[in-house]
# Entry
Amino acid sequence: MPDSSRGNRLKHLRGLFIPPGQAKKMGELLTNVTEDAESFEEEEINDAAGTAANIIDSIENGTDSDTARSVLRGVSNMLKTRLDRLKASQKSEKSAVRLLRAVERLAELVEVKGSQPVTMETEGIVITATGTNVTSFDGLSYFPDSAELSKESDGRQEPNRGKSKIDLPASLLDKVDDKDKVDRIQFAIFKSTKFFQAADENTPEDVAVLGASIGADLRVQGLADRVKITFPRTGNTDDHVCAFWDQDLNDGNGRWSSEGVEVGTAGNSNVTVCESNHLTNFAVLPADAVAGAGQITFSTSLFGLLLSMIVVYMYG
# Structure
């Protein structure tokens, strides 16, 4: 039986006006009511996603990490929902896409001080953000397994170690028109693909998703130097390909696509290395989950990067 009192509470939260300075309290309320999200009905999922979006809309840029973390916990709880009901809510109100966007916005809004990274971790999602200086940016590497950053892009880890990594080249910001808007680089790790599965039923489970972006909604294309994204190989992945999440496909629900994505030459039996000269969303997925995809080989080369990059990699 649906919990009518819980449903009424969620509907009440969604309808509240959120004054400045109340986002943390609202995030705590959302986290509390979503603790048993595994039993949520479609309407409750919609109301929870709507509440998260409303809270984030009330947050000013440069919010403290405690506030952002309180909202992130509530969003992360929604990964526990039943997939069939999340799919229904995606169909009716695009709730899964709204939850994905909530994670991106929190990464963009949390306060960063200089190059000191800020990491917020929940059971299902990890966000890391760091400040950056356009004039002195000299490349950056991100290590998802430990949520660590290194300014020595591509210099701390050899591909044969079998660890996940993103290398951002020193020329990354050269193509950005609004350089005054570039104050940060942020990453998000999803330990479940459920939000993506709800939007695109071809998305496999038991993989993790990594997202990276620069500033807020900035686009980067035509990079002279490629971004390199390293994914560990687990088991036989010869039928896997590099793909990116195209939010414009599938009537705005999003879909994995292989267009413009290839595989770099640095991969081996331990890792697959994807490369890109533009910013978008990436993943390593079974070829049959991505339309028009070819199989991974060690001799092909890939083009693509990402500014709203979400990279799916074999986790663990």
